[in-house]
Design a protein that fits this description.
The complex is a heterodimer of chains A (about 375) and B (about 625). By secondary structure, chain A is of the alpha/beta class. Helix content of chain A is about 40%, strand content about 15%. Chain A contains 13 helices and 13 strands. A seven-stranded parallel beta sheet of chain A has the order 3-2-1-4-5-6-7, with helices on both faces. A six-stranded parallel beta sheet of chain A has the order 10-9-8-11-12-13, sandwiched between helices. In chain A, helix 2 (about 60-75) runs parallel beside helix 3 and helix 3 (about 90-100) packs across helix 4. Chain A is elongated and about 65 Å long. By secondary structure, chain B is of the alpha+beta class. In chain B, strand 8 and strand 9 (about 160-165) form a beta hairpin. The chains are: A alpha/beta (about 375), B alpha+beta (about 625).
C-alpha cells in the first residue's frame, strides 16, 4: 500500500496520530506500507515491521511528481491510501496510473465546507472512503454521488493511557481549583473555532453557581482567542468562575481528567470529538454539543449527553443532571480502543483488495 | 405474506440493537400481518429481528417467525412465498435434511445451510428475507428477481436497519428523514420513485434480483443474481418457432405458472376485470381443478349500466369458469373518505395504487387472504402502446440526434409556444430532443413531468442535484444494457419491467394490498414463466396479448376480446385530478374523457404536497 498523507511519523496532532494507528493496524495484519508524507521525518524512529516512511516533500507540485514517480517505480501497489481530501486528486491520478485501488480517508471539517468540482470528482472516483464519524459520512453522502456501501466509518481511537485512576495530588495542589465541582474543557482556543461553545458555558455558570457555589469551569488550552474568551468569561460569569489553565502537556491530560467532575464542551462542529472519549475513558462524564460528529463520541447515556448549547436552560439542566450521575462507565469506551480500530481497518482493507477495481472513469 | 424488519449493530462502537426501536418498526407494519408477531435478539444483542405474520402456508405455530435452524446457527425473518418449496424440500430430504414443519420458511433455512447466499438462484417465488448466520456473523438480505416484495435498508455507518416498508424504518426513530433529491426528482419524472432510491437519503431499496451481505465491516455492494435484460436476451437466443408451437408454448408456460401460484393452505381468489389477463388466470385455475374460486371485481357507481362498467362482462367470465363472483362498487364519496388512509399507507409517493386499494379492500371484506392478479401481463405480452410507440419514435427521430443542439432548440421553441397557448401536451416539446434514443423515448412515453419542467415544481437547486444524482437517461439505459443487444420488443419489455412494473405496479400492489392484509400473487411476474415463453419477436407476431384468451379451455368469451381493443377507463383519474386541485375544464363531460395521463400531473403534485420528508412524514 502506498500511503499519501499530510503527516504521520515525526509529527504530533490528531491526523498524524490517526494515520500512525491506521498504518500500524494494517501492518499488523501483514500489509506492507510505504508512507509518503508532506510533513515530518521518521529519521531515528524505529517503525513497526512492514512500514517505511519516505522523507517529506512539502511543495505541492514536487509532492505530486514524487507520488507519481514512487507509484510508478516502487510498486507494485495494490492500494493507494490518501490521508486527506486535499490530496485526493493526486491520489486518484496515481491510483489510475498504476491500476491500484484508491482509498480515501476523511476527517470531518475537510468535507463539510469547501466543495470544488475537482475535489468532488476525486472523491467520487474512490473505491473506498472512510470517515471518522457517522455525521461526516452523512454530510459527505449529501454532496457526492457514491454508493453508500463504499463509504465506511472507522471511529477515532482512544489511547491506552486514558484510563480511570486516582486524581494526582500534585496537580490538584498546583491548580488549586478548590472543592469543586470542577467542569473541564480541553482544546485549542482559536477564533476560528468558537463553535466549541465556551461562551455558552460561561453564560450558564451563574445559574449553576447558585446551586453549586464552589463550581469552577477549568478551560485548558492556549491559542489566539484566549484574551477574547477571558474577557467574555468575566462579562458572563464574573471573576472567579472560570480558570484558564493554558496549554497542558499531553502527558498531564489523563491526570487532569481524573481531577475533574464533568467534561463540558458543547461544541457543534466536532469532526469526531476525540476529547469526549478521552475524558470518558478516564471516567469523566461528558456534556457535548449537538451537530457535527459528536454523536459518535457520546454514543449513549453511559458516557454523557449532547445538548444544543444555544438553549441555556437545557445546558444548565444537562450539566446539573450529569453531575448528579457520577462517573462514566469506562466499558462504554472499550470498543474505541486500538485493537477494535485495527481490526476494523484490516477488514476494510481485505474487502477492498477482494473487490474488483471500479470501472475506469466511473463516477 | 408478512412484514419484516431488523437491526444489526455491525461496528463494535455501535450501541446494541434497541428493543423499543424494533417494536416501533413492527407496529408500523401491523396491517401486513395480523395473524402473529414475533421478535428475536441474538445472545449478544447485536442483532434483532421482528416479524408480522399473515399465515398462508403451514398455519400452525411451527410456521411462526423469526424461525431458527435446529442447531441454532441460522435465524430468518421472511416475507413472501416460495412456490417451488416442495420440490426444494424433496431435494434437501434426498440429501438427508430433516424438516420440523411444513413451512416454506424452513426450506429457506435449510437451503441456506446447504448452499449459502447463492441459494436465492434456486427460488421460484416472491420474497424479501434476512438470514442471520451466527457462525460467520453475517447478515444476508435478499429480494426476489423482479422486485415483487419490497426490502429497504438504512446504513448509518455503524448499524444497518432493514424493513419491508421505508416508513417502518422511519417509525423506528433512528433513521434520518433528510430528503434525497434523486428520489424526489425520480418521483416527479416517473410518477413513482425509481429503485434503489427512495425520497429519503438514508434509505435505499435492496435492488430487485440482488442480495446484500453485511459483515462486521458493514454492507457490501448489492450482488445482482438476476437481470431481466439478460434473461430476455437468452430467450431470444433460442431462435424462432412456428406460430402454433408458440401458442402451445405460451399455454404450457401459463398453466405451469398458475399451478405454482396456487400453492397455499388457505383459499386463493382472483382479482377479475373484464380483460383477458385476469380472465385467463381464472380460466386456467378452473382447468387446473380449482373449484368455487372467489372472483372479485371492482365497479364504479358512476359507470353503472354504461359501456365502461366492467361488472357484466366479468360476471360472464366468472360464470363460464364456475367462480363465485363478488362485485364491489366504489363511489367518489368512499374515495374521498379513504384518501387520508391511502396517503398514510402509501409507503412511497406514487401516482397509482388506488384501484388496487379498493379491490384488496373488497377481497378482505369477503374474508380472503390471497388473490391472483393479472399484473405484469402487459409487460410480458407487449400490451402497452409503448411497445409500438417507442421503437417508432427511435426510428423516426434518430436522424435528428446528429444535429447538435437541434433537439434542445426545438424543445425551447415548442415550450414557449405551449406556454402561450398552443394546444399541445407539455411533454410533446421534447420529442426531437428525447425521442431519438431508447431511454429518451421511453422517458417521454412514461414520464409525468419532463426534466425541463422540474424547475417550476421543485426548488431549482434540488432539481439540478436530483437530476445529476439520478441521471435518468443512463438509469433507464442500464436496464437494457446487459449482455447481447435486444430486439425492439425485448428492449421495451425490459424497460417496462424495470421501471413501470417494478417501481409503480408492484410497489403499489404491495402497500395497497398489505394495507388490507391481502397477499397479491402475480403469475405473470415470474422469471420461470418469462423464460418459458417464446422469444419477444414471436410473442409480438402471434399477438400474445390476445392469444392468451385461448389458453384456458374453454377459452374466454368473444366479448372480452372485443373489449380489450376498446381499452379500459375508470373514474379514478378524474377523482385524483380533482383531489389534486384541478377543476373540471370546459367541454369535459363524461368521466372517461379524463385520461390517466392528464390526471396524473395534478395528482402527483397533490401526493407530493402530502408531506414526505422532514419531520411530518410517516
Amino acid at each position: 500500500m502506498l500511503a499519501l498523507v499530510s503527516d504521520c511519523y515525526g509529527m504530533g496532532g490528531g491526523i498524524a496520530r490517526y494515520n500512525q494507528d491506521l498504518v500500524e493496524g494494517l501492518a499488523e495484519g501483514g500489509a506492507h506500507i510505504l508512507v509518503l508524507p508532506r510533513h515530518g521525518r521518521a529519521d531515528g524512529l524505529v517503525l513497526p515491521a512492514g512500514i517505511r516512511q519516505e522523507p517529506p516533500v512539502f511543495n505541492r507540485l514536487l509532492y505530486s511528481l514524487r507520488s507519481l514517480w514512487i507509484g510508478w517505480r516502487h510498486g507494485p501497489f495494490d492500494v493507494v491510501f490518501c490521508g486527506h481530501v486535499y490530496m485526493a486528486p493526486i491520489a486518484w491520478a496515481v491510483a489510475r496510473l498504476i491500476g491500484a485501488r484508491y482509498w480515501l480517508q476523511t476527517h470531518g471539517t475537510d468535507v463539510w465546507e469547501s466543495r470544488p468540482a475537482l475535489r468532488r470528482r476525486a472523491i467520487e472516483a474512490a473505491d473506498l472512503v472512510t470517515a471518522v464519524s457517522r455525521g461526516t459520512r452523512h454530510i459527505l453522502l449529501g454532496w457526492v454521488e457514491l454508493p453508500p456501501d463504499r463509504v465506511r466509518v472507522i471511529p477515532d481511537t482512544v489511547q491506552d493511557r486514558f484510563v480511570p485512576g486516582p486524581p494526582p495530588a500534585a496537580l490538584r495542589e498546583r491548580l488549586a481549583l478548590g472543592p469543586g465541582p470542577i467542569l473541564l474543557a480541553v482544546g485549542r482556543l482559536s477564533a476560528g473555532e468558537r463553535y466549541k461553545g465556551h461562551e455558552q458555558v460561561f453564560g450558564a455558570l451563574p445559574a449553576l453557581r447558585e446551586r453549586f457555589p464552589a463550581l469552577v469551569y477549568a478551560v485548558a488550552g492556549g491559542g489566539d482567542d484566549r484574551a477574547y474568551l477571558e474577557r467574555r468569561a468575566r462579562e458572563l460569569a464574573g471573576e472567579s468562575a472560570v480558570r484558564f489553565l493554558g496549554f497542558v502537556p499531553e502527558e498531564d491530560l489523563p491526570g487532569l481528567y481524573r481531577l475533574a467532575d464533568l467534561y463540558v464542551m458543547p461544541s457543534t462542529q466536532e469532526g469526531f470529538g476525540i476529547v469526549y472519549l478521552e475524558a470518558a475513558a478516564c471516567g469523566l462524564r461528558v456534556v457535548g454539543g449537538t451537530g457535527g460528529g459528536s454523536a459518535d463520541a457520546v454514543p449513549d447515556g453511559r458516557v454523557g449527553v449532547l445538548v444544543d448549547p444555544s438553549d441555556r436552560a437545557a445546558l444548565v439542566a444537562a450539566i446539573a443532571g450529569q453531575l448528579a450521575r457520577g462517573k462514566a462507565d469506562p466499558a462504554a469506551v472499550e470498543p474505541y480502543r486500538r485493537t477494535h480500530f485495527a481490526a476494523a481497518a484490516r477488514r476494510l482493507l481485505a474487502r477492498l483488495v477482494d473487490q474488483g477495481r471500479r470501472m475506469r472513469g466511473a463516477a | 405474506m408478512c412484514g419484516i424488519a431488523g437491526i444489526f449493530a455491525y461496528l463494535d462502537v455501535a450501541p446494541d440493537a434497541d428493543r423499543g426501536e424494533l417494536a416501533r418498526m413492527n407496529a408500523r407494519m401491523a396491517r401486513r400481518g395480523p395473524d402473529g408477531s414475533g421478535d428475536w435478539f441474538s445472545a449478544d444483542r447485536r442483532v434483532g429481528f421482528t416479524h408480522r405474520r399473515l399465515a398462508i402456508i403451514d398455519l400452525s405455530e411451527r410456521g411462526a417467525q423469526p424461525m431458527h435452524s435446529a442447531d441454532g446457527r441460522l435465524t430468518i425473518t421472511f416475507n413472501g412465498e416460495i412456490y417451488n418449496y416442495r420440490e426444494l424440500k424433496a431435494e434437501l430430504e434426498a440429501k438427508g435434511c430433516r424438516f420440523r414443519s411444513g413451512s416454506d420458511t424452513e426450506v429457506l433455512l435449510q437451503l441456506y445451510a446447504d448452499r449459502g447466499p447463492s441459494m436465492v438462484e434456486a427460488l421460484r417465488g416472491m420474497f424479501a428475507f434476512a438470514i442471520w448466520d451466527e457462525r460467520t456473523r453475517t447478515l444476508l438480505l435478499a429480494r426476489d428477481p423482479l422486485g415483487i416484495k419490497p426490502l429497504y435498508y438504512a446504513d448509518d455507518g455503524w448499524t444497518i436497519r432493514f424493513a419491508s416498508q421505508a416508513k417502518a424504518l422511519l417509525a423506528g426513530g433512528a433513521v434520518s428523514r433528510d430528503p434525497d433529491p434523486a428520489g424526489i426528482v425520480g418521483f416527479h419524472l416517473f410518477g413513482s420513485v425509481p429503485d434503489p432510491f427512495t425520497v429519503w437519503r438514508g434509505i435505499r431499496a435492496v435492488p430487485a434480483g440482488a442480495t446484500v451481505l453485511v459483515d462486521a465491516a458493514g454492507p457490501e455492494a448489492p450482488r445482482v443474481y438476476y437481470n431481466i435484460a439478460q434473461s430476455l436476451g437468452r430467450r431470444a437466443g433460442a431462435g424462432g418457432i412456428a406460430a402454433a408451437d408458440a401458442r402451445r408454448q405460451l399455454s404450457v408456460a401459463l398453466h405451469d405458472s398458475v399451478r405454482h401460484h396456487l400453492v397455499a393452505d388457505v383459499p386463493v381468489a382472483v382479482f377479475l376485470s373484464a380483460g383477458l389477463d385476469s380472465g385467463a388466470l381464472l380460466g386456467t385455475m378452473a382447468e387446473l381443478g380449482a373449484r368455487d374460486t372467489l372472483a372479485v371485481t371492482l365497479s364504479f357507481a358512476e359507470f353503472k349500466g354504461d359501456r365502461h362498467d366492467e361488472a357484466p362482462l366479468a360476471a360472464e367470465i366468472a360464470a363460464r369458469y364456475g367462480a363465485r363472483h363478488v362485485v364491489r362498487t366504489v363511489d367518489r364519496a368512499e374515495f374521498e373518505r379513504e384518501l387520508p388512509a391511502i396517503l398514510d399507507a402509501m409507503d412511497m409517493p406514487t401516482i397509482d395504487g388506488i384501484n388496487t386499494w379498493f379491490v384488496a379492500k373488497a377481497a378482505h371484506e369477503a374474508g380472503i387472504k390471497v388473490a391472483l392478479s393479472g399484473l405484469g401481463a402487459d409487460e410480458c405480452f407487449g400490451g402497452y402502446p409503448s411497445f409500438t410507440d417507442v421503437p417508432r419514435s427511435v426510428r423516426l427521430m434518430r436522424p435528428f440526434r446528429f444535429v447538435p443542439g437541434l433537439g434542445a432548440l426545438a424543445r425551447r421553441v415548442l415550450s414557449s409556444a405551449i406556454a402561450s397557448g398552443a394546444r399541445l401536451h407539455p411533454k410533446s416539446a421534447g420529442v426531437l430532443q428525447y425521442g431519438g434514443d431508447w431511454a429518451g423515448a421511453y422517458l417521454l412515453r412514461r414520464s409525468v413531468f419532463m426534466p425541463w419542467e422540474l424547475d417550476g415544481l421543485l426548488d431549482p437547486a434540488l432539481a439540478a442535484e436530483g437530476l445529476r444524482r439520478l441521471a435518468p437517461l443512463s438509469h433507464i439505459a442500464a436496464a437494457i444494457q446487459f449482455g447481447r443487444p435486444l430486439g425492439d420488443f425485448d428492449r421495451v419489455a425490459a424497460m417496462e419491467t424495470s421501471f413501470y412494473m417494478r417501481n409503480q405496479l408492484l410497489r403499489d400492489a404491495d402497500w395497497a394490498g398489505m394495507a388490507h392484509s391481502m397477499e397479491i400473487r402475480v403469475p405473470y411476474v415470474d422469471p420461470f414463466f418469462i423464460a418459458a415463453l417464446p422469444p419477444g419477436n414471436v410473442l409480438a407476431a402471434i399477438r400474445a396479448k390476445e392469444a392468451v384468451a385461448d389458453v384456458p379451455q374453454p377459452p374466454l368469451p368473444q366479448a372480452s376480446r372485443n373489449r380489450s381493443k376498446t381499452g379500459f377507463v375508470t373514474p379514478v383519474g378524474r377523482w385524483m385530478r380533482e383531489a389534486g386541485g384541478a377543476t373540471r375544464g370546459a367541454g369535459e363531460g363524461a368521466a372517461a374523457d379524463v385520461t390517466f395521463s392528464s390526471a396524473s400531473r395534478a395528482w402527483a403534485l397533490r401526493v407530493w404536497q402530502a408531506g414526505w420528508t422532514g419531520s411530518a412524514a410517516a
